[in-house]
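Researcher: Sequence recovery benchmark, item below. Answer with residues only.
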């Protein structure tokens, strides 16, 4: 086997390995909350995601990739020795895939984009030195560690709080859901349509002006509004007619919290019998709050609330499908971009700023993503869906819609953001809406630590692989 053929085989294997790792880790972004809330079974999620991820990757994946990933390395570094780019990209694929596999094994949702950027930084610094790196772009990635989860978490918190107040605290939850669902469907479809156009379909290089984009989104959203309105109006409570039950007004909890704060201040200024009586009052408020909150936390076991959760289950499935399609179209480049760049160098002997991506490479990436999801995807899906906080369809919908909206707004404003970090932050935000005790703080800590070490670990592993490849094949 010739030198070039050996490298080509290694590159193809590494590209597939990278795509497999993306499927095992990143696809949970789209399906994790749906499985965790029981809107979809794991088998259903795998089948749906497999079809949509592959379709997005193959039919709408980028047909042109940047050679120097995301403008991280200065291109003149490889002008004299293009073969070093091949070694670097091959090392990057192996290192990133290995880190994603390790993260998937422990159920950590990490960013594949951040991992590949860290890998490119690693071999770029070895070849061209520290000055060969565009550190401004790398610093934007670091900033996204904070922007992504905070933005997604805040929006998901607000959405879930709104749903609880307007639906679950309403005298008639089903009627409230029938009123709110059609406008929600309109907003969801508008947001996801824009994500599809800007993230999933932008690779087709469609020349849509703002009016055409708005028109397409309005037609899709209006159709969804009319269909959802017709469907929810047909919903009736099975069995006996709905009997309205008394529910605690949200203002009651706010008032009790204020009373606790005032009484805590009183304990600092009194002593003796007065101090003891104030402590008794604080204990009574705690018991009263717990007794009032308990029925609210178990609402999904009652018949009327089960109907509401069923409605949001369909909303969640719809958003998950569109997010999976957009993910396949957008993130397949993390595996196929370095592969195509390496093959182009082997074929032409020069480094170009842009590289054509053949259809078979997109198919390879799409197939790898599907295999990764089917074999190891359940690990990260379980983390996002079950191990951070308990999810129901309404909570899962709030997290998914909050994440999708954040991704859309941030991408239009040019803010650096990670899809993975945004969704995890949104799930945490939904958990916080129910109180800090609703979160698994140990799992949350482990996930955040995995984010911080992704770039340096990917860079370090890449350096090791780069030196190994250079020692085997020479420079």
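Model:
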């Amino acid at each position: 086997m010739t030198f070039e053929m050996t490298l080509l085989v290694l590159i193809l294997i590494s590209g597939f390995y990278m795509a497999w790792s993306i499927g095992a880790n990143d696809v949970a972004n789209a399906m994790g909350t749906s499985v965790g809330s029981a809107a979809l079974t794991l088998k259903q999620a795998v089948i749906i995601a497999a079809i949509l991820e592959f379709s997005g990757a193959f039919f709408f994946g980028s047909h042109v990739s940047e050679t120097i990933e995301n403008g991280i390395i200065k291109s003149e570094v490889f002008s004299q020795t293009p073969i070093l780019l091949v070694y670097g990209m091959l090392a990057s694929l192996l290192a990133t895939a290995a880190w994603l596999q390790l993260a998937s094994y422990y159920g950590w949702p990490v960013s594949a984009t951040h991992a590949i950027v860290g890998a490119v930084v690693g071999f770029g610094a070895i070849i061209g030195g520290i000055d060969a790196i565009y550190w401004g772009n790398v610093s934007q990635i670091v900033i996204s560690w904070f922007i992504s989860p905070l933005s997604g978490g805040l929006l998901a918190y607000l959405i879930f709080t709104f749903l609880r107040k307007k639906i679950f605290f309403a005298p008639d939850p089903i009627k409230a859901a029938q009123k709110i669902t059609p406008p929600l469907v309109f907003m969801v479809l508008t947001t996801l349509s824009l994500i599809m156009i800007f993230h999933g379909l932008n690779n087709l290089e469609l020349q849509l002006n703002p009016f055409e984009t708005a028109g397409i989104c309005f037609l899709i959203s209006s159709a969804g509004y009319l269909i959802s309105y017709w469907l929810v109006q047909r919903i009736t409570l099975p069995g006996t007619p709905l009997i309205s039950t008394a529910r605690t007004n949200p203002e009651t909890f706010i008032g009790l919290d204020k009373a606790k704060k005032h009484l805590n201040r009183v304990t600092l200024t009194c002593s003796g019998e007065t101090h003891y009586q104030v402590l008794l009052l604080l204990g009574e408020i705690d018991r009263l709050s717990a007794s009032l909150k308990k029925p609210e936390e178990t609402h999904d076991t009652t018949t009327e609330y089960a109907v509401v959760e069923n409605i949001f289950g369909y909303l969640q499935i719809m958003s998950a499908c569109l997010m999976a399609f957009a993910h396949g179209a957008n993130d397949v480049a993390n595996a196929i971009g370095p592969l195509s760049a390496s093959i182009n160098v082997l074929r032409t002997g020069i480094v170009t700023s842009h590289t054509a991506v053949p259809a078979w490479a997109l198919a390879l990436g799409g197939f790898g993503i599907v295999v990764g999801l089917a074999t190891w995807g359940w690990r990260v899906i379980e983390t996002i869906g079950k191990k951070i906080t308990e999810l129901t369809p309404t909570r899962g919908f709030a997290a998914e819609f909050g994440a999708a909206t954040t991704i859309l707004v941030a991408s239009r404003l040019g803010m650096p953001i990670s899809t993975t970090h945004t969704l995890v932050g949104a799930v945490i935000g939904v958990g916080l809406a129910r109180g800090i005790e609703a979160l698994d703080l140990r799992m949350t800590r482990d996930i955040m630590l995995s984010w911080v070490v992704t770039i340096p670990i990917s860079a370090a592993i890449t350096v090791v692989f780069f030196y190994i490849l250079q020692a085997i094949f020479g420079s």
